[in-house]
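Hey, sorry to bother you again with one of my protein questions. A protein chain has come my way and I'm curious about its shape. It would help a lot if you went through both lines with me. I owe you a coffee for this, so here goes:
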Amino acid sequence: MASTEQTKLGSPAGRLSKAGVLSFLSAQGILIFFLIGMFVFSFFSEQFLSQSNIMTVVRQASIIGIIAVGVTVVIIGGNLDLSVGSMLSFSTVLVVDLHDKIGPTNAILMMFALTLMIGAVNGFLIGFLRLNSLIVTLAMLSAIQGFVLIYSGGQNVDIADQEGTWFAFFGRGYLAGIAVPILLFGLLAILVQVVMSYTGYGRRIFAVGGNPMAAVYSGIRKNWCVFSTYLISAFCVACAALVLGSRVMGSQNNVGQGYELLVLAGIILGGTSLLGGAGSIWKTVIGVLILGFIQNGLLLMGYPYYIQWIVTWVIIILAVWLDLANKRKRLLTTHS
Protein backbone atom coordinates (compact mmCIF):
# COMPACT_ATOMS: atom_id res chain seq x y z
CA MET A 1 0.00 0.00 0.00
CA ALA A 2 2.81 2.37 0.94
CA SER A 3 4.70 1.56 -2.23
CA THR A 4 1.56 2.30 -4.23
CA GLU A 5 1.24 5.76 -2.64
CA GLN A 6 4.92 6.47 -3.28
CA THR A 7 4.46 5.41 -6.89
CA LYS A 8 1.54 7.82 -7.26
CA LEU A 9 3.49 10.70 -5.76
CA GLY A 10 6.49 9.90 -7.91
CA SER A 11 4.44 9.48 -11.07
CA PRO A 12 4.36 12.20 -13.75
CA ALA A 13 0.80 13.09 -12.70
CA GLY A 14 1.86 13.45 -9.05
CA ARG A 15 4.85 15.58 -9.93
CA LEU A 16 2.68 17.67 -12.24
CA SER A 17 0.15 18.23 -9.45
CA LYS A 18 2.88 19.27 -7.02
CA ALA A 19 4.43 21.58 -9.60
CA GLY A 20 1.03 23.09 -10.28
CA VAL A 21 0.48 23.85 -6.60
CA LEU A 22 3.94 25.40 -6.26
CA SER A 23 3.42 27.39 -9.44
CA PHE A 24 0.10 28.71 -8.16
CA LEU A 25 1.60 29.64 -4.79
CA SER A 26 4.57 31.39 -6.36
CA ALA A 27 2.45 33.23 -8.94
CA GLN A 28 -0.44 34.18 -6.64
CA GLY A 29 1.29 34.09 -3.25
CA ILE A 30 1.43 37.86 -2.83
CA LEU A 31 -2.32 38.10 -3.55
CA ILE A 32 -2.99 35.38 -0.99
CA PHE A 33 -0.80 37.24 1.49
CA PHE A 34 -2.74 40.43 0.78
CA LEU A 35 -6.13 38.76 1.32
CA ILE A 36 -4.94 37.26 4.60
CA GLY A 37 -3.62 40.67 5.64
CA MET A 38 -6.92 42.32 4.75
CA PHE A 39 -8.76 39.78 6.90
CA VAL A 40 -6.38 40.29 9.82
CA PHE A 41 -6.60 44.09 9.61
CA SER A 42 -10.41 44.03 9.41
CA PHE A 43 -10.47 41.77 12.46
CA PHE A 44 -8.47 44.25 14.53
CA SER A 45 -10.13 47.40 13.16
CA GLU A 46 -13.78 47.85 12.22
CA GLN A 47 -12.92 50.96 10.21
CA PHE A 48 -10.52 49.17 7.86
CA LEU A 49 -13.09 48.00 5.29
CA SER A 50 -15.37 51.04 5.59
CA GLN A 51 -16.05 52.99 2.40
CA SER A 52 -14.52 56.18 3.76
CA ASN A 53 -11.30 54.42 4.76
CA ILE A 54 -11.01 52.62 1.42
CA MET A 55 -11.44 55.89 -0.51
CA THR A 56 -8.92 57.57 1.79
CA VAL A 57 -6.34 54.85 1.16
CA VAL A 58 -6.81 54.99 -2.62
CA ARG A 59 -6.57 58.78 -2.54
CA GLN A 60 -3.37 58.69 -0.50
CA ALA A 61 -1.90 55.98 -2.72
CA SER A 62 -2.71 57.95 -5.88
CA ILE A 63 0.46 60.07 -5.69
CA ILE A 64 2.70 57.00 -5.46
CA GLY A 65 0.56 55.30 -8.09
CA ILE A 66 0.82 58.16 -10.58
CA ILE A 67 4.62 58.11 -10.31
CA ALA A 68 4.67 54.30 -10.47
CA VAL A 69 2.80 54.34 -13.79
CA GLY A 70 5.66 56.25 -15.42
CA VAL A 71 8.45 54.31 -13.72
CA THR A 72 6.85 51.03 -14.82
CA VAL A 73 7.33 52.09 -18.44
CA VAL A 74 11.00 52.85 -17.72
CA ILE A 75 11.52 49.44 -16.09
CA ILE A 76 9.74 47.58 -18.89
CA GLY A 77 12.20 49.33 -21.21
CA GLY A 78 15.07 47.75 -19.27
CA ASN A 79 16.16 50.66 -17.06
CA LEU A 80 15.60 52.22 -13.63
CA ASP A 81 14.62 55.68 -12.42
CA LEU A 82 15.68 56.40 -8.85
CA SER A 83 15.47 60.16 -9.26
CA VAL A 84 11.67 60.36 -8.97
CA GLY A 85 11.70 61.16 -5.24
CA SER A 86 13.95 64.19 -5.55
CA MET A 87 12.19 65.16 -8.77
CA LEU A 88 8.90 65.18 -6.86
CA SER A 89 10.45 67.49 -4.24
CA PHE A 90 11.71 69.82 -6.97
CA SER A 91 8.42 69.92 -8.88
CA THR A 92 6.26 70.42 -5.79
CA VAL A 93 8.44 73.19 -4.34
CA LEU A 94 8.60 74.89 -7.74
CA VAL A 95 4.87 74.92 -8.49
CA VAL A 96 3.97 76.07 -4.98
CA ASP A 97 6.64 78.79 -4.89
CA LEU A 98 5.76 80.13 -8.35
CA HIS A 99 2.01 80.10 -7.62
CA ASP A 100 2.03 83.50 -5.90
CA LYS A 101 4.75 84.94 -8.14
CA ILE A 102 3.47 84.26 -11.66
CA GLY A 103 0.00 82.81 -11.07
CA PRO A 104 -1.22 79.20 -10.92
CA THR A 105 -1.51 78.62 -14.67
CA ASN A 106 2.00 79.84 -15.49
CA ALA A 107 3.37 78.04 -12.42
CA ILE A 108 1.91 74.73 -13.59
CA LEU A 109 3.23 75.18 -17.14
CA MET A 110 6.68 76.16 -15.89
CA MET A 111 6.79 73.22 -13.50
CA PHE A 112 5.85 70.72 -16.21
CA ALA A 113 8.42 72.19 -18.63
CA LEU A 114 11.31 72.04 -16.16
CA THR A 115 10.38 68.59 -14.90
CA LEU A 116 10.30 67.29 -18.47
CA MET A 117 13.73 68.84 -18.98
CA ILE A 118 15.08 66.74 -16.10
CA GLY A 119 13.52 63.67 -17.68
CA ALA A 120 15.11 64.63 -21.00
CA VAL A 121 18.55 64.85 -19.37
CA ASN A 122 18.08 61.40 -17.85
CA GLY A 123 16.88 60.03 -21.17
CA PHE A 124 19.77 61.57 -23.12
CA LEU A 125 22.45 60.28 -20.75
CA ILE A 126 20.98 56.77 -20.65
CA GLY A 127 19.47 56.44 -24.11
CA PHE A 128 22.05 58.20 -26.28
CA LEU A 129 25.25 58.14 -24.22
CA ARG A 130 24.37 54.65 -22.94
CA LEU A 131 25.32 55.32 -19.35
CA ASN A 132 24.08 53.00 -16.60
CA SER A 133 20.57 54.00 -15.54
CA LEU A 134 21.15 53.11 -11.89
CA ILE A 135 24.20 55.37 -11.63
CA VAL A 136 22.72 58.23 -13.66
CA THR A 137 19.42 58.44 -11.80
CA LEU A 138 21.08 57.95 -8.42
CA ALA A 139 23.40 60.86 -9.21
CA MET A 140 20.42 62.88 -10.48
CA LEU A 141 18.61 62.18 -7.20
CA SER A 142 21.45 63.81 -5.29
CA ALA A 143 21.86 66.70 -7.72
CA ILE A 144 18.16 67.61 -7.75
CA GLN A 145 17.90 67.50 -3.98
CA GLY A 146 20.87 69.84 -3.71
CA PHE A 147 19.32 72.22 -6.22
CA VAL A 148 16.01 72.22 -4.30
CA LEU A 149 17.82 73.20 -1.11
CA ILE A 150 19.63 76.02 -2.94
CA TYR A 151 16.42 77.23 -4.61
CA SER A 152 14.35 77.20 -1.40
CA GLY A 153 17.16 78.34 0.88
CA GLY A 154 16.34 75.34 3.05
CA GLN A 155 12.93 76.86 3.87
CA ASN A 156 9.45 75.47 3.35
CA VAL A 157 7.20 77.21 0.82
CA ASP A 158 3.47 77.93 1.13
CA ILE A 159 0.64 79.46 -0.89
CA ALA A 160 -0.62 82.67 0.70
CA ASP A 161 -4.31 82.63 -0.29
CA GLN A 162 -5.14 78.96 0.15
CA GLU A 163 -8.90 79.44 0.17
CA GLY A 164 -9.22 81.73 -2.83
CA THR A 165 -7.29 79.82 -5.50
CA TRP A 166 -8.60 77.24 -7.95
CA PHE A 167 -5.24 75.48 -7.67
CA ALA A 168 -6.68 73.43 -4.78
CA PHE A 169 -8.92 71.56 -7.26
CA PHE A 170 -6.19 69.08 -8.26
CA GLY A 171 -5.54 67.86 -4.73
CA ARG A 172 -8.78 68.59 -2.86
CA GLY A 173 -11.48 68.68 -5.54
CA TYR A 174 -14.13 66.14 -6.54
CA LEU A 175 -15.77 65.20 -9.82
CA ALA A 176 -18.95 63.11 -9.76
CA GLY A 177 -18.27 62.39 -6.10
CA ILE A 178 -14.80 60.98 -6.78
CA ALA A 179 -11.64 62.69 -5.60
CA VAL A 180 -9.66 64.29 -8.44
CA PRO A 181 -6.37 62.54 -7.46
CA ILE A 182 -8.09 59.16 -7.83
CA LEU A 183 -9.51 60.16 -11.23
CA LEU A 184 -6.13 61.40 -12.43
CA PHE A 185 -4.47 58.20 -11.24
CA GLY A 186 -7.07 56.07 -12.99
CA LEU A 187 -6.99 58.04 -16.26
CA LEU A 188 -3.19 57.94 -16.47
CA ALA A 189 -3.16 54.21 -15.74
CA ILE A 190 -5.78 53.51 -18.41
CA LEU A 191 -4.04 55.68 -21.01
CA VAL A 192 -0.58 54.20 -20.46
CA GLN A 193 -1.96 50.66 -20.28
CA VAL A 194 -3.67 51.11 -23.64
CA VAL A 195 -0.52 52.59 -25.18
CA MET A 196 1.71 49.80 -23.84
CA SER A 197 -0.68 46.99 -24.80
CA TYR A 198 -2.22 48.05 -28.10
CA THR A 199 0.23 50.30 -29.94
CA GLY A 200 3.42 49.78 -31.87
CA TYR A 201 5.21 52.11 -29.49
CA GLY A 202 4.35 49.89 -26.53
CA ARG A 203 5.54 46.78 -28.34
CA ARG A 204 8.83 48.50 -29.12
CA ILE A 205 9.36 49.34 -25.44
CA PHE A 206 8.77 45.70 -24.49
CA ALA A 207 11.16 44.58 -27.24
CA VAL A 208 13.91 46.97 -26.14
CA GLY A 209 13.59 45.85 -22.52
CA GLY A 210 13.36 42.15 -23.33
CA ASN A 211 16.18 41.83 -25.86
CA PRO A 212 17.95 45.12 -26.73
CA MET A 213 20.26 43.59 -29.32
CA ALA A 214 17.45 41.84 -31.18
CA ALA A 215 15.40 45.04 -31.05
CA VAL A 216 18.22 47.00 -32.69
CA TYR A 217 18.62 44.38 -35.42
CA SER A 218 14.86 44.59 -35.98
CA GLY A 219 15.20 48.26 -36.86
CA ILE A 220 13.94 49.68 -33.56
CA ARG A 221 15.63 52.94 -32.55
CA LYS A 222 16.54 51.93 -29.04
CA ASN A 223 17.99 55.28 -28.02
CA TRP A 224 14.79 57.17 -28.80
CA CYS A 225 12.66 54.53 -27.08
CA VAL A 226 14.70 54.80 -23.88
CA PHE A 227 14.68 58.59 -24.12
CA SER A 228 10.88 58.65 -24.40
CA THR A 229 10.37 56.41 -21.35
CA TYR A 230 12.13 58.98 -19.16
CA LEU A 231 9.93 61.74 -20.55
CA ILE A 232 6.87 59.68 -19.58
CA SER A 233 8.31 59.13 -16.11
CA ALA A 234 9.00 62.87 -15.69
CA PHE A 235 5.50 63.76 -16.89
CA CYS A 236 3.95 61.43 -14.31
CA VAL A 237 6.13 62.95 -11.56
CA ALA A 238 4.90 66.41 -12.60
CA CYS A 239 1.29 65.21 -12.36
CA ALA A 240 1.99 63.80 -8.89
CA ALA A 241 3.61 67.08 -7.82
CA LEU A 242 0.54 68.96 -9.02
CA VAL A 243 -1.68 66.78 -6.84
CA LEU A 244 0.65 66.90 -3.83
CA GLY A 245 1.23 70.66 -3.96
CA SER A 246 -2.45 71.51 -4.35
CA ARG A 247 -3.47 69.13 -1.59
CA VAL A 248 -1.03 70.49 0.99
CA MET A 249 -0.93 74.05 -0.41
CA GLY A 250 2.72 74.11 0.55
CA SER A 251 5.82 71.97 0.39
CA GLN A 252 8.88 70.97 2.34
CA ASN A 253 12.13 70.86 0.41
CA ASN A 254 12.44 67.11 1.02
CA VAL A 255 8.79 66.20 0.56
CA GLY A 256 9.62 63.49 -2.02
CA GLN A 257 12.29 61.76 0.05
CA GLY A 258 11.70 58.01 0.14
CA TYR A 259 9.08 57.99 -2.61
CA GLU A 260 11.44 56.13 -4.95
CA LEU A 261 11.43 53.16 -2.54
CA LEU A 262 7.65 53.13 -2.23
CA VAL A 263 7.24 53.39 -6.00
CA LEU A 264 9.64 50.49 -6.63
CA ALA A 265 7.90 48.45 -3.92
CA GLY A 266 4.53 48.90 -5.62
CA ILE A 267 5.96 48.04 -9.03
CA ILE A 268 7.73 44.92 -7.75
CA LEU A 269 4.57 43.84 -5.95
CA GLY A 270 2.78 44.15 -9.29
CA GLY A 271 5.16 41.62 -10.80
CA THR A 272 7.07 43.87 -13.20
CA SER A 273 10.49 42.35 -13.83
CA LEU A 274 13.42 44.58 -12.90
CA LEU A 275 15.30 42.94 -15.78
CA GLY A 276 12.94 44.60 -18.27
CA GLY A 277 10.71 43.31 -21.05
CA ALA A 278 7.81 42.23 -18.81
CA GLY A 279 5.25 44.08 -16.76
CA SER A 280 1.78 45.57 -16.68
CA ILE A 281 0.38 48.93 -15.65
CA TRP A 282 -2.71 47.27 -14.20
CA LYS A 283 -0.59 45.02 -12.02
CA THR A 284 1.41 48.04 -10.87
CA VAL A 285 -1.85 49.71 -9.81
CA ILE A 286 -2.74 46.60 -7.82
CA GLY A 287 0.73 46.50 -6.25
CA VAL A 288 0.50 50.14 -5.17
CA LEU A 289 -2.95 49.56 -3.64
CA ILE A 290 -1.71 46.47 -1.80
CA LEU A 291 1.10 48.50 -0.29
CA GLY A 292 -1.29 51.32 0.63
CA PHE A 293 -3.78 49.05 2.39
CA ILE A 294 -1.06 47.25 4.33
CA GLN A 295 0.39 50.54 5.56
CA ASN A 296 -3.09 51.81 6.47
CA GLY A 297 -3.86 48.62 8.34
CA LEU A 298 -0.67 48.91 10.38
CA LEU A 299 -1.56 52.47 11.37
CA LEU A 300 -5.09 51.50 12.38
CA MET A 301 -3.62 48.72 14.52
CA GLY A 302 -1.57 51.34 16.35
CA TYR A 303 1.89 50.59 14.98
CA PRO A 304 4.24 53.60 14.56
CA TYR A 305 5.01 54.98 11.12
CA TYR A 306 8.55 53.62 10.95
CA ILE A 307 7.24 50.04 11.15
CA GLN A 308 5.86 50.59 7.63
CA TRP A 309 9.40 50.81 6.25
CA ILE A 310 10.35 47.48 7.82
CA VAL A 311 7.20 45.84 6.50
CA THR A 312 7.85 47.37 3.05
CA TRP A 313 11.30 45.73 3.03
CA VAL A 314 9.79 42.36 3.98
CA ILE A 315 7.17 42.68 1.24
CA ILE A 316 9.78 43.50 -1.40
CA ILE A 317 11.91 40.49 -0.43
CA LEU A 318 8.83 38.25 -0.44
CA ALA A 319 7.69 39.52 -3.85
CA VAL A 320 11.13 39.05 -5.43
CA TRP A 321 11.42 35.56 -3.92
CA LEU A 322 8.03 34.55 -5.28
CA ASP A 323 8.91 35.98 -8.69
CA LEU A 324 12.11 33.92 -8.81
CA ALA A 325 10.25 30.86 -7.54
CA ASN A 326 7.74 31.26 -10.35
CA LYS A 327 10.55 31.31 -12.91
CA ARG A 328 12.33 28.32 -11.34
CA LYS A 329 9.03 26.45 -10.75
CA ARG A 330 10.02 25.83 -7.13
CA LEU A 331 9.92 27.82 -3.91
CA LEU A 332 13.26 26.66 -2.52
CA THR A 333 16.53 25.99 -4.32
CA THR A 334 20.08 25.24 -3.26
CA HIS A 335 21.75 26.35 -6.48
CA SER A 336 21.35 29.12 -9.05
In short: The chain is about 75% helix and 0% strand. The chain has a mean pLDDT of 85.
